[in-house]
Design goal:
Strand content: 15-25%
CATH architecture: 3-Layer(aba) Sandwich
Largest sheet: 7 strands, parallel
Distance between the termini: 19 Å
Order of helices and strands: EHEHEEHEHEHEEHEHE
Strand order of the largest sheet: 1-10-9-6-2-3-5
Oligomer: single chain
Number of domains: 1
CATH class: Alpha Beta
Length: about 220
């Protein structure tokens, strides 16, 4: 794990957006299309604001969320909504979006359908992750129902997780899919998350799920 420190969050956002754009551009030299997996939440928004203006052949970039709350894409807690509002604008509006939600009462009823869309995109070309102070990443929450399956080396592409700390059922790319990405970046802000990440290194993935995706991952940190 390589940790890159920045003087502030704005510098991190500009630098990482440039890095991601460069990696996508490099992979487009050898592939017809590339995949970019990104989180929702508050952390990536500042990065999206810079990345969306990158001079890329966005029509060949397929964007997917790392995880999704099982709510309509118009809901204020939908990751798709944030990604569409902050990333899929400007030049990046031409990118293809691959959702992890479709109308159904339970994600289990449509999981195979969602996986069939994601499968051709693997391995993920470039992955951007965040991490919570509880050491979760994507929707891999400590203690969540479904976590053991999501962490299994033979896990399916997508896992359904239900956590007592979260109001919604979640769908997440499994740990093996996240960890297999060609290029991986983890963004954390603040001293508490830096301390949590350092603690995660000495804990099993069941207690610190982020630990399962740190192999050859570049961590970007600013206070």
């Amino acid at each position: 794990m390589n940790i890159v420190e920045y003087p502030d969050q704005d510098m991190l956002a500009i630098d990482l957006a440039n890095k991601i754009a460069g990696e996508l551009e490099t992979q487009l030299l050898n592939k017809e299309t590339v995949s970019l997996a990104v989180p929702g939440g508050s952390t990536p928004g500042v990065i999206f604001d810079d990345l969306c203006a990158a001079d890329l052949d966005w029509e060949r970039v397929h964007v997917m969320p790392t995880d999704e709350r099982w709510v309509p894409n118009t809901h204020h807690r939908s990751n798709e909504r944030l990604i569409r509002e902050r990333l899929l604008v400007n030049r990046a509006a031409k990118a293809l979006y691959l959702p992890l939600h479709t109308p159904a009462d339970r994600p289990e009823d449509v999981l195979a359908e969602l996986e069939s869309v994601i499968a051709p995109e693997l391995p993920i070309s470039v992955l951007l992750l965040g991490m919570g102070a509880d050491m979760h990443t994507a929707s891999l929450f400590p203690g969540a129902e479904g976590l053991q399956t999501a962490l299994d080396p033979a896990a399916p592409i997508l896992s359904v997780l239900r956590s007592q700390t979260q109001p919604e059922t979640r769908v997440s790319l499994s740990a093996r899919v996240l960890d297999a990405a060609i290029s991986k970046h983890l963004v954390i802000f603040g001293s508490k998350k830096r301390e949590a990440l350092e603690q995660a290194m000495s804990l099993p993935p069941e207690e610190a799920p982020v630990q399962a995706v740190l192999t050859e991952t570049t961590v970007h940190w600013a206070n």
